[in-house]
Amino acid sequence: ERQILRISYDSVHLPSPSFKTSDGELNLTCTHPSVTDEWISWYRQFPRQGLQFIVQGYSKTSPSTEPEGILHISEDRKSSTLSLRHVRLADAAVYYCALRDTVRHTGAAPYN
């Protein structure tokens, strides 16, 4: 049976533009002003594929191995930046940040 990750987007904002590039590094910034006790998670989604978990953190920094990078969480936890190193065309995807834990639901549709 198919399992789809459900993510709550209700209190996450991606300002536009939300990225910067320099020397092959990509910085994606997300604001989450209503964060309380939740872990901050980042995912990406390639065309015609499901969500792929990248990294999760609670404070300060957390490394990411695929893609290579690091998650920086602001001291007040109201924003986070996913810094990816050595970005290639193959890394082109839709990137999401999320609060709240993700929950697997068999046969469920993605939560919006």
What's the mean pLDDT score? 78
List how many beta strands DSSP finds: 9
The name of the CATH topology is Immunoglobulin-like
Determine the N-to-C terminus distance. Answer: 21 Å
What CATH architecture would you give? Sandwich
Main CATH class? Mainly Beta
Helix content: under 10%
From the alpha carbons, calculate the radius of gyration and give it in angstroms: 14 Å
Largest sheet: spatial strand order: 2-3-8-7-6
Biggest β-sheet strands, sense, barrel: 5 strands, antiparallel
> How many distinct domains?
1
CATH superfamily: Immunoglobulins
State the assembly state of the protein chains: single chain
Uncertain residue segments: 1-11, 103-112
In N-to-C order, the SSE pattern is EEEEEEEEE
Q: Give me the secondary-structure category.
A: mainly beta
What does the overall shape look like? globular
Task: Give the amount of beta strand, in percent.
Answer: over 45%
Supply the key terms.
112 residues, mainly beta, Immunoglobulin-like, 5-stranded antiparallel sheet, 4-stranded antiparallel sheet, 54% strand, disordered N terminus, disordered C terminus
